[in-house]
Amino acid sequence: xxxSKNIKIGDVKLTSNAPFFSNKAISGKFQRRFTxxxxxxxxxxxxxxxxxxxxxKKFALQTQFNKPFYFPLSYFSLYTGTVKDTLxxxxxxxxxxxxxTAGQFSGTLEAGTIIQFSNHSKLYQxxxxxxxxxxxxxxxxxxxxxxxxxxxxxxxxxxxxxITDEKREWTLQSLNKVKFNATESMP
Length: 187
Description:
By secondary structure, this protein is mainly β. It has one helix at about 55-65; strands at about 10-15, 20-25, 30-35, 40-50, 70, 85-90, 100, 110, 115, 120-125, 130, 135-140, 150-155, 160-165, 175-185. The longest helix is centred in the first third of the chain and has 11 residues, at about 55-65.
């Protein structure tokens, strides 16, 4: 991320993409099946004065060749629940699994919480409330294996993203804006 007091980041938009197929049967039952991996897209604008353009150009150049950058998810991942302890996995979970067994902690990890595992940067959402020793149900399924004892981050989440813009428009004025589009970098 652009870490500078001279560059102000604004107009941030985070989009969750979950490709699915839906169908309504003759019986009236609605079915939804996910046909691909869920991922996030990020859009943001860097606002800066003309004399600070070098910092923005440096970020643009360093990230244009598939080098991931980390972006804090701010209010989207703000945790206000009851868990206060370090959260860990109690046992191994293979890539593709939808459930990770939680270790010991106090409180309840609430549905909707954004989490990350310490061995990879993919963002996951907890789909049901869970207490210590319970099963954390995730969306989407795990992209990488999780080891027993691995730390599960649930505060101050930063997503890893790759720039997806094919072209960059630079306006040459004293006050500038440059828009960036990125997609979640997945293991």
